[in-house]
Specification:
globular; 182 residues; alpha+beta; Porin
């Protein structure tokens, strides 16, 4: 690993710790917490050239997302998330691109009944692009965001729900996943 990549990792760790502390202070000791895991198709990294302008880059396979959300006020959830995606250059599989996005998410539940919850979500953070060749590598940072105005979750039990989200950003154009109450 290059020294730059090590420094980026150190900074990202500090950001995550700071976000967790902020969320912990805001949410209080008795707040509800949930873990989310999802897959998102067609990400910001593909649509907005988060590969340093390189020619002939394949579309990524999508994105794997994980997040931790805290109920901070009636209808509002706040928490950090991590997204991973990767791709390669067309006709040159040894040139790979790895994307790591860390964002702070805010969700607002605007409708709820006993089974279904409709909500909107927004997120802001950073994408670190790590590009590798057989004998070298480099890193570059981009602004990451996610805007999902149409989202729904269906409760499968008291603590498990599946969800679908439609929007645009680093987490994907369409996301499908599960939420587990902790």
């Amino acid at each position: 690993m290059t020294e730059i990549f090590k420094n980026i990792i150190k900074v990202m760790k500090k950001i995550i710790i700071a976000l967790m502390m902020i969320v912990g202070i805001v949410s209080g000791a008795q707040a509800q917490t949930e873990l989310t895991v999802s897959y998102g198709a067609y990400t910001q990294m593909d649509a907005m050239d988060c590969h340093d302008g390189g020619p002939s880059v394949n579309n990524a396979w999508g994105a794997l997302n994980a997040g931790l959300n805290f109920h901070v006020a009636p209808g509002f959830w706040l928490g950090p998330s991590y997204t991973f995606s990767s791709t390669s250059r067309k006709h040159y599989d040894e040139n790979k691109f790895y994307y790591h996005a860390i964002m702070l998410n805010l969700r607002y539940n605007y409708y709820r009944n006993s089974i279904v919850t409709l909500y909107a979500k927004g997120a802001l953070g950073s994408v670190i692009m790590h590009e590798t060749w057989p004998d070298d590598s480099k890193n570059k940072a981009y602004c990451a965001f996610q805007i999902n105005p149409l989202c729904a979750q269906v409760g499968l039990s008291r603590s498990v729900a599946m969800f679908g989200e439609l929007g645009f950003g680093a987490q994907g154009l369409i996301q499908l996943g599960f939420k587990i109450g902790l």
